[in-house]
Amino acid sequence: MKKCDLCHMPDKIHYRVKSICHKEWIVCCRKCWNVISNHNNYSYGGTRKAK
User: Are the C-beta atoms of 7 and 31 separated by less than 8 Å?
Assistant: First the structure.
């Protein structure tokens, strides 16, 4: 399992995103995604699922 770039908790599903606070692409868990998706200039880049 990969770790979230923000909270560093391992999870099976991550979202590739960027926003006004994160100019480069990051991967984050669902909990962190709920916060980032409300930021200005939010961009979604896909979902990564662990096999």
Answer: yes
CA–CA separation, 51 and 43 (whole Å) = 25
- Run means of pLDDT, 10 residues per run, the chain, 51 residues: 94 95 94 94 93 75
- Predicted pLDDT of residue 50: 81
The residue segments making up the domain with residue 8 are: 2-49
Which CA distances in Å does 50 have to 12, 15, 26, 27, 30? 5, 12, 16, 13, 14
Number of domains present in the structure of the chain: 1
